[in-house]
Write a structure and sequence with these properties.
CATH superfamily of one domain: FAD/NAD(P)-binding domain
Strand content: 15-25%
Order of helices and strands: EHEEHHEEEEEHEEEEEEEHHEEEHHHHH
CATH class of one domain: Alpha Beta
Shape: globular
Bound molecules: flavin-adenine dinucleotide
CATH topology of one domain: FAD/NAD(P)-binding domain
Distance between the termini: 21 Å
Structural class: alpha/beta
CATH architecture of one domain: 3-Layer(bba) Sandwich
Radius of gyration: 21 Å
């Protein structure tokens, strides 16, 4: 990739060999974005199959613009629930503190997916675009031979340290449980149930399924990853004594997985030579703003676009320059949410009052605070 782009309009990826390490949400989006620009793309996935955990995922307009530009509009229709509103809830009284109408957001409607459905539609589109997916293929010591190698190998990335990142993750004293229950006919609303030192987020999925993510501050360490099953009784005990509206939902949980939440610094360096990292490999994102996958989709688009328009060293440097400040801002906003959800005592009362007032007097202005996040369109060029 040494020549310059044709009038800056792109085309450098055409016929180039791109290898993506990791077939998660970010890796498949990157594979599809490169294939749409004419690259020959192979995804190397360590697992014996492409699969996602049984849980929900919220995709906001900024991420949906990428999926839409990748040609997934029709596929997304039947595979997701269009969200109407988000309701911050007082988890003690069980009453909404306020309600924000998500249909006021500009751009594509906010959606709730089951992760398996989202990964399924990305995989199908990638294969239809000519992407080869090789399973049981772990990328590690030896980098694949390609014009561009994309490290989309997730939170425990092996490629991230290869380009000089030596940051150490730190347990942040909180764990998350996730579960899916049956709840046909539930309102298409995301509820954030706030209680001192704890919160839960609930929303409906397609086919009567209903997603629960519950976070509790605690000092007892837990491993980072969804492969750890837990006793649903531990989840119920953590939220005992709160409103019956919430504890009733938790009472339905039969299977639950536990994830220890760690703070990882954003990678200092996102590229070296012909290798670039994206998604959780570059910036593991705590789940307090529902943005990890959304940011990975944005990364995928920008990386493919830069690589199509510029020769490699500049392309990857531009990619990092465009992405890092935005990702850092989103991660800071997610961290602030955790603090606000878990408040105690008089501060909690005052914060809920302020939220209620904002929701009544200026709901547009309140959601407008997130215009920089949801209104961003990486596909606009
Ligand atoms: C509780 C919780 C709730 C969340 N909710 C949301 C939400 O609502 N909205 C949102 O946008 N984000 C959410 N996120 C974040 C989101 O899940 C992640 O940011 C996103 O899945 C990252 O995608 P990725 O492709 O970068 O990594 P992953 O999805 O982790 O994919 C990495 C892939 O690489 C493979 N792999 C690993 N190592 C290798 C290797 N050496 N060689 C080859 N393959 C390899 C893995 O098997 C995996 O398939 C949430 C996270 C948590 C913990």
């Amino acid at each position: 990739m040494s020549e310059t782009a044709d009038n800056g309009r792109g085309g450098l990826l055409r016929g180039r060999r791109v290898v993506v390490a990791g077939g998660g949400l970010g890796g498949l989006a990157a594979a599809l974005a490169c294939a749409r620009r004419g690259a020959e793309v192979e995804v190397l996935e360590r697992a014996p199959e492409i699969a996602e955990v049984g849980a929900g995922i919220q995709v906001s307009p900024n991420g949906l613009r990428v999926l839409s530009a990748l040609g997934l509009d029709a596929a997304m229709q039947g595979a997701s629930v269009v969200a109407q509103a988000v309701e911050p809830m007082d988890a003690i009284s069980g009453r909404p503190v306020t309600r924000f109408d998500l249909t006021r957001l500009e751009g594509p409607p906010y959606r709730f997916f089951h992760r398996a459905d989202l990964i399924g539609l990305l995989l199908e589109a990638a294969r239809a675009a000519g992407v080869t997916v090789t399973l049981g293929a772990e990328v590690g010591e030896v980098l694949p031979d390609a014009d561009l190698v994309i490290g989309a190998d997730g939170i425990h990335s092996r490629l991230r340290p290869r380009i000089g990142n030596v940051e150490v993750a730190e347990f942040m004293g909180a764990v998350a449980w996730r579960a899916v229950i049956e709840r046909p006919g539930a309102e298409p609303v995301a509820r954030v149930w706030m209680a001192p030192g704890r919160h839960a987020v609930t929303y409906p999925l397609t086919d009567g399924r209903f997603n629960i993510v519950a976070v509790q501050e605690r000092s007892q360490w837990a491993a980072e990853g969804w492969q750890h099953a837990d006793d649903p009784g531990h989840l119920r005990a953590a939220f005992a004594g709160l409103s019956g509206r919430l504890t009733g939902l938790l009472g339905q949980v039969e299977q639950v997985a536990l994830w220890g939440l760690f703070r990882h610094p954003v990678a200092t360096t996102w590229h070296a030579g012909n290798l670039a990292i994206l998604g959780d490999a570059a910036h593991p994102t705590l789940p307090f703003l529902a943005q990890g996958a959304n940011l990975a989709f944005e990364d995928a688009w920008v990386l493919a676009d830069c690589s199509d328009r510029m020769a490699l060293p500049e392309a990857l440097a531009s990619y990092q320059r465009m992405r890092r400040p935005r990702v850092e801002r989103a991660i800071a906003a997610a961290n602030a949410n955790k603090r606000n959800y878990h408040l105690r005592g008089p501060v909690r009362v005052a914060a809920h009052l302020a939220l209620k007032t904002a929701g009544r007097l200026a709901p547009g202005a309140y959601l407008g605070r997130l215009d920089w996040l949801y209104g961003h369109d990486v596909t606009a060029g």
